[in-house]
Design a protein that fits this description.
Length: about 110
Amino acid sequence: MNTMRHFYWIVDTAYAYTSPQVNVSGLFAGGLTWSKAINNIIQTLGVTIFYVSTAAFMIGALMYTAGFINEENKSKGKQLMIGALLGMGVVLSAKAIFNAAYFFVYGV
């Protein structure tokens, strides 16, 4: 019991901090505007499609590497890698066009 009394001397007392209460209501609740919502959706879709294209490219590279067994797999892997690179290019160019339009419309 004597050790517990010394332990309480080491540990500092924690006090709760009260913050002002914020009421969230209305169309722009939480500070989310239409421009931020559209930007969040575009960013999420762009990243997702880019990662899917990267995975498709890796699968195509694996198929191309394993193409010494079957020539058909080699050509499928090559086509998959080309399609994945084209997909990445389309996503990056669409994102650049969106960012330019977003800048001119919202000035951010």
